Each structure stands twice: as C-alpha cells, then as structure tokens.
Amino acid sequence: xxxxxxxxxxxxxxxxxxxxxxxxxxxxxxxxxxxxxxxxxxxxxxxxxxxxxxxxxxxxxxxxxxxxxxxxxxxxxxxxxxxxxxxxxxxxxxxxxxxxxxxxxxxxxxxxxxxxxxxxxxxxxxxxxxx
Length: 131
Known about the structure:
Blueprint: E1 4-16, E2 25-37, E3 43-51, E4 55-65, E5 71-81, E6 90-100, E7 107-114, E8 120-130
Antiparallel strand pairs: 1-2, 1-8, 3-4, 4-5, 5-6, 7-8
C-alpha cells in the first residue's frame, strides 16, 4: 500500500494530588501529530509532560504501516511522581497498542495512569489515517 498520513494529537490531562490545604496541580497539554508513514520506515511519536513540581508523563510509541493500510501504534506511557519532575520513581506504566484504519472517523484511545499517591494522568490519542 502507498504511504499514509497520520494526523491528530496526543493529549495528557492529569492532577498532582497535594495534601490539604494545598491546591492540587492540574495539567492539560496537547501535542499535534502530522506524520507521513511508509512501509519502509516507522515513525516515532513521543511526548513528555512535566507539572506540579513532582509529576511527569513520558509517552514513547512507534507507528508502522501494514500491507492493508492500517497504521499500528505501539509503545508505552509512564507516570513518574517524586520529589521533583525529574524523578525516576515510576508510579504506573501501560502498554499503548491500537490500530488506526484508513479513512473514516479518527481513532480515539484513552490510557489511564494512576499512582498510589493520588496523582493521575489520562493519555488520549486521537489519530486519523489518510492518503
């Protein structure tokens, strides 16, 4: 199949949970995606979001084109929470894996990341596959 265009966005919404009476620290960030995907070379998608002084989400994924024109997205989304946004304390991890079929409506996938400390992030992929 010929090359395809992957377009849409990756969005991270979340909260750094703080003890009362301190206010919680919300986040809502979006990264646009517009990539040409070929059968010869995968496309890499990444996004890092830091917020609240203590939280970080890292998204790393690959987009591959199959012979039927589907774009296969696979990778990971990881929530870190600690004393700083640069912490190595991994609190939750999920596998990202879905297909974006050619044409039609965008494919929307949500992945929830939740720490044992009350912090969370929702990672949303909204992607379409066109010529």
